[in-house]
Amino acid sequence: SRKPSGLSDDHAYVKPGVSGRLKSLRRGFDYFVEFCFGTGTEELTNYARQAGLQPIATAELPTTPSRPQNAVPDATELAVRVQTIPDAVPPAQAAPAPPRRARTAPDTVPPVAQAAPVPSLRERDTPDGVASGGQATADQSSRVHVVPEATELPARARAIQDGTEWMEEPDGDLDTLDAFDNDSFLDAMRREMLFGRTAADDVNLCGPGSVVEQGSDDEDDGALMSSDDGEESGYDSSEASSGEDEVEPTFETTEEELRELTASGWTTYDADHCGELQLSAAADYYDGPSGPTRSALAFADSPLGLFFYFLPKKLWIRIAEESNRYRSQLIPELAQRRREALLSQQLQDPRKSVPPLAEIEADLRRFKPIKPHEIVHVVGLLMARAIAPVRDGLAKHRATAEDSAVPRGTFSRYMKRARFEAITRFLHFNDNEMAEAAHDKAWKIRPVLQAVEKTFRRGYRLGRCISFDEGMVPNRSRFNPIKVYMKDKPSKWGTKFYLTCCAETAYCASVEVYCGKKREGKKEQNVGPKSVVRNITKVLRGQPYKQLVITDNYYSSIQPSIKLHNMGLYHVGTVRKARLGWCSDIEYSQKKKDQKKCQGYPYLVALAWMDSKPVNMIATGCSTHQTTVNRREKDGSITVTPCPQLVVDYADGMSGVDVHDQLRLERYSLQKCVAFKKYYKQLFLGIVDMALVNGLIVHNIAKRQNDERSTPHASYLRRLHKDLLALRDIHFDSHPVAEDLVSGPVTRGDHALANTSNRYESDTQSKRRQYLCKVCSAHTSGKSFETSYFCPTCSDYFGGRVPLCPKVRRLEEGNTLSCAQIWHDVWNDGRNIPALPHQIRFRGKKRKRSETNNAESKENEGGEENEESKEN
């Protein structure tokens, strides 16, 4: 906002929730009273209902005796009335819960425990979900079979008043996962809203003053560094992995109950009685459909289709718009810098002329706007660098000469150096002048996060096991406000993401950036466990539950296990023994390696397992029956070791996030092949890497379903980067949801063949010009066929003529389709071309030499006329 230049009596009344620039027509009006001819009463009422300050069942505002009912009240009076609405439901009094008993087991064979039945937390919940004293005890949105009364406050209002968790249900214009898992998925993709305003209670919003201004955002941030030189000087806001995340989920168990559980709530089974309790796995595990949805499988044959499925064209158009906006905002400062540089040069050389500031700004505004396909070209070039890196700098990819066995660069064939540097310098994703930028530490990449949150979720239906862990996007920039230090990670400095992955395929269904503390000086408890409940609730919204959630010891404790169980989910994970509620009697004493301790509690099982060191585990819904695992000893031999089944469940499921990180970071990583000075560009490349890994996983799942061999990671990226570099501006003007890349029967345009109008003219005959057929030239290694027929629609799409034979060729190979049918039906209009002996290229119409000479002569004449006019 601008600084005040003086005193003024100008004023404006703003509708609650409005941000950005105000319309001039609304200035000087009371929005709720005078604007829209007195409809402000309804506006204020609607806002109060949306904010949860007024019950939905209330039909009209109460009227005062001194004012007629149809009169327009004052806006201030309305606001006071809304704030003083009485509670619709008085808090219920809940009977105090009896102390719970648990059980433990000590040495040797996996022991388990049995205790007297205790009423579950759900059974002890009062009908209104409020404990004695009016304090909320459970998550309103996570309950099952709870139907609110008509007189209750809205869920959002109860959450605001009681401080409980509130999970917003999808709006009417949003589609559930089922909408993307049927044959009409294209309609759902067209309706999908990728971007939106951040909710007031979102996890990423921080307190006032928590987002510190860290350096100028208009400095030369397009310079690229090697991946080892990412650290800069400046404000260092790095923190450890702790902090506050959002309006957090609440746990049913209190600290007093957990301390009582630790002291006397467990029943311990010693080595002689550990076999008395053998718990079986839950019988109602989710066994429904899982894997890629119908919409994702429709794009699975084309790497380019999967790229635009997870990173839609709308996102790239938005990035191009924000990049151009960002550069326009920088023009005054860029002009000032250029003028200062010219003035400093003039001091060295007085003959140097310095144009006025207005002329410099006009020159900067002649910059060619950044197009979406150009940004995609930059990603394609970085993908080529990840596949075939040149270790001595990015500039070597533009080398014009070979150096012995080192080949010359190829980047200049696709984009000029100046254009590449300009795009990377002004690459931007959000408007810095929006009000939310002061409260959201991840505001720089918020549109990207909003888009992938929807596209990742719609592309996959999670199965029986869900892996939850953190992932790291390496970045050592001191300007990064959400940088953390994690000593156990290969890259210890970077931005932390919460990843929810399929334990079997490593597909990432949800990604959430960790933004650190909301307010300085406030210490938040249970950050990890709360993030599990929040993300699992979000990713499974609208789907059946009964999955097994697998976490490590940072995210596991007694509280989230009970919380997930009451939500209808099961949990297994390692746990830290310092967590409240953990059984102190099960502490492992260093004995023989095959001795272990195991303990149970109605649906809760605790266990100490001896691996290379003692490991404490907790689980619900898992089996404690013995099974065996193969263990590799120090000498390389394999031994068969007995262990409880829940240990196997944990080991098999916890690798989901780890495998995703390996595919994302180890070999072909965009974020590690180049480093930017601006941290948010590095985060963007990290998110692009996640989308590429998800695309590879879906592509190979579809391959296996068709009994085909999986595509290697490098081959997948080679084909994708080739398709990205072939994109043009027309590809973003048409097919907004990439429906042209769908495999199978979809609505297509007119692809009728046309005969060329170009002819060979001679004294004796006139003959149509013929061109090599694209299908024939790709298949054959010898003679190819020429044809005068071509597809005008495909020619416009690819930016070059697409000749196709209307006849059936290669009959000796058993072919029964014409080249036009192969191109349109088998190759999906040329979007899914398989690997063939020859590569297909598209060339535009060549200009004749006479036309070129005439154009050059006209330009020269025009230049001479301009010079003469200037002289005159």
Write a structural description.
This is PiggyBac transposable element-derived protein domain-containing protein. It comes from Phytophthora nicotianae P10297. Residues 215-234, 242-251, 862-872 have a biased composition (Acidic residues). Residues 134-143 have a biased composition (Polar residues). The protein has 872 residues and is α+β, with helices and mostly antiparallel strands. It folds into 4 domains: 24-83, no CATH class; 177-221 and 236-288 and 444-663, no CATH class; 295-432 and 670-740, no CATH class; 749-872, no CATH class. Helix content is 32%, strand content 11%. The chain is built from 25 helices and 21 strands. The radius of gyration is 33 Å and the shape is globular. The protein starts with 39 loop residues before the first helix and ends with a helix. The relative contact order is 0.11. Residues 7-11, 17-40, 54-173, 225-247, 591-600 and 858-872 have low confidence and may be disordered.
Gist of the model:
The protein has 872 residues and is α+β, with helices and mostly antiparallel strands.
Question: Which features would summarize this protein structure in a list?
Answer:
872 residues; alpha+beta; 4 domains; two-stranded antiparallel ribbon; globular; disordered C terminus; PGBD; PiggyBac transposable element-derived protein domain-containing protein
